[in-house]
Amino acid sequence: MTSPASRIFCAVDTTEIDSARRTAAQVNGAVGGIKLGLEFFIAQGPAGVRAVIGENGPPLFLDLKLHDIPNTVASGIRSALPLKPAFMTIHASGGGAMMRAAADAAAEGGAERPKILAVTVLTSLDEDDLRGVGQALPVADQVTRLALLAKESGVDGVVCSPAEVARLRAACGPDFILMVPGIRPVWSATNDQKRFMTPAEAVAAGADHLVIGRPITASADPAAAARRIVAEIEEAA
Ligand SMILES: O=C(O)c1cc(=O)[nH]c(=O)n1[C@@H]1O[C@H](COP(=O)(O)O)[C@@H](O)[C@H]1O
């Protein structure tokens, strides 16, 4: 069985190498891996990623949320292969051909290939926001439609909000990876997240992995915050 700690990717959202290294060191062993995203990658590039993760570091979730024409997204994935990320993200709304191209490019990494996850509807969006961009579907329907398209297109899983986990687990089967941000323990601030749940609720609903940033990184003691989250998941199991 997957241990609760190994399910957690700590979102290290910073532009600074020193700060990222410090957080990664603090949570080492208390979480399953480190997520580095756009703000870090744009500021520090591949060398910065290597400086944080090192040769035998924790599993890397490289969250660049690629969204472009298929050829460009495939090249972007290929360019990241030397960093050996465990997971990378693309936007499902880029379409089936784009997702297929990303999956094919990732396969070139062989046994160490990154698993490709498609972002469905961002957890910072609610129905009003979707209407604002011309989407009439309820959020859950839009997420399900994108997840099924992602599965058909050969990607490994999706990023979705906790609110959609149970529905996607039923629709996409047991092997489709559900990576779930929008996680808020009852004792932490909600910040800009709109569709969120506690860590234990998300795991009970069927999440494979949890992406947790500020509840851990903004804590005075990140390792203690991560351990508290793990304990809450274990107690609820
Ligand atoms: O792809 C993601 O990881 C992601 C997708 C999404 O819909 N919502 C979302 O919050 N995220 C990421 O998950 C992390 C959440 O961080 P916290 O809100 O600080 O826990 C951030 O790094 C976001 O970029």
UniProtKB/TrEMBL annotation:
<dbReference type="InterPro" id="IPR011060">
    <property type="entry name" value="RibuloseP-bd_barrel"/>
</dbReference>
<comment type="similarity">
    <text>Belongs to the OMP decarboxylase family. Type 1 subfamily.</text>
</comment>
<dbReference type="GO" id="GO:0005829">
    <property type="term" value="C:cytosol"/>
</dbReference>
<feature type="active site" description="For OMPdecase activity">
    <location>
        <position position="65"/>
    </location>
</feature>
<feature type="domain" description="Orotidine 5'-phosphate decarboxylase">
    <location>
        <begin position="7"/>
        <end position="229"/>
    </location>
</feature>
<feature type="active site" description="Proton donor">
    <location>
        <position position="65"/>
    </location>
</feature>
<dbReference type="InterPro" id="IPR013785">
    <property type="entry name" value="Aldolase_TIM"/>
</dbReference>
<dbReference type="InterPro" id="IPR018089">
    <property type="entry name" value="OMPdecase_AS"/>
</dbReference>
<comment type="subunit">
    <text>Homodimer.</text>
</comment>
<feature type="active site" description="For OMPdecase activity">
    <location>
        <position position="68"/>
    </location>
</feature>
<keyword id="KW-0210">Decarboxylase</keyword>
<feature type="binding site">
    <location>
        <position position="184"/>
    </location>
    <ligand>
        <name>substrate</name>
    </ligand>
</feature>
<feature type="active site" description="For OMPdecase activity">
    <location>
        <position position="63"/>
    </location>
</feature>
<feature type="binding site">
    <location>
        <begin position="63"/>
        <end position="72"/>
    </location>
    <ligand>
        <name>substrate</name>
    </ligand>
</feature>
<dbReference type="GO" id="GO:0006207">
    <property type="term" value="P:'de novo' pyrimidine nucleobase biosynthetic process"/>
</dbReference>
<feature type="binding site">
    <location>
        <position position="193"/>
    </location>
    <ligand>
        <name>substrate</name>
    </ligand>
</feature>
<feature type="binding site">
    <location>
        <position position="13"/>
    </location>
    <ligand>
        <name>substrate</name>
    </ligand>
</feature>
<comment type="function">
    <text>Catalyzes the decarboxylation of orotidine 5'-monophosphate (OMP) to uridine 5'-monophosphate (UMP).</text>
</comment>
<feature type="binding site">
    <location>
        <position position="35"/>
    </location>
    <ligand>
        <name>substrate</name>
    </ligand>
</feature>
<keyword id="KW-0665">Pyrimidine biosynthesis</keyword>
<dbReference type="InterPro" id="IPR047596">
    <property type="entry name" value="OMPdecase_bac"/>
</dbReference>
<dbReference type="Pfam" id="PF00215">
    <property type="entry name" value="OMPdecase"/>
</dbReference>
<feature type="binding site">
    <location>
        <position position="214"/>
    </location>
    <ligand>
        <name>substrate</name>
    </ligand>
</feature>
<comment type="pathway">
    <text>Pyrimidine metabolism; UMP biosynthesis via de novo pathway; UMP from orotate: step 2/2.</text>
</comment>
<dbReference type="GO" id="GO:0004590">
    <property type="term" value="F:orotidine-5'-phosphate decarboxylase activity"/>
</dbReference>
<feature type="binding site">
    <location>
        <position position="123"/>
    </location>
    <ligand>
        <name>substrate</name>
    </ligand>
</feature>
<dbReference type="GO" id="GO:0044205">
    <property type="term" value="P:'de novo' UMP biosynthetic process"/>
</dbReference>
<keyword id="KW-0456">Lyase</keyword>
<feature type="binding site">
    <location>
        <position position="213"/>
    </location>
    <ligand>
        <name>substrate</name>
    </ligand>
</feature>
<protein>
    <recommendedName>
        <fullName>Orotidine 5'-phosphate decarboxylase</fullName>
        <ecNumber>4.1.1.23</ecNumber>
    </recommendedName>
</protein>
<dbReference type="InterPro" id="IPR001754">
    <property type="entry name" value="OMPdeCOase_dom"/>
</dbReference>
<dbReference type="InterPro" id="IPR014732">
    <property type="entry name" value="OMPdecase"/>
</dbReference>
